[in-house]
Amino acid sequence: MPRILHEPVDAARVPRFAGRPSFMRLPMPDTPEGLDIALVGIPWDGGTTNRAGARHGPREVRNQSSLMRRGHHVSGVIPYELVSVADVGDIEVQPIDLMAALDQIEAGIAAICAAGALPLSVGGDHLTTLPVLRAIHKARGEGPLGLVQFDAHSDTNDRYFGDNLYTHGTPFRRAIEEGILDPKRIVQIGIRGSVYAADEHQWAKDQGIRIIYIEEADRLGPQGVVEEIHRIMGVSPCYVTFDIDGIDPAMAPGTGTPEIGGLTTREAQAMIRGLAGLTIRGADVVEVSPPFDIGGLTALTGATVLFELLCVIAAGMNR
Ligand code: MN
Ligand code: MN
Question: Of the chain's two ends, which shows fewer C-beta atoms within 10 Å, N or C?
Answer without folding.
Answer: C
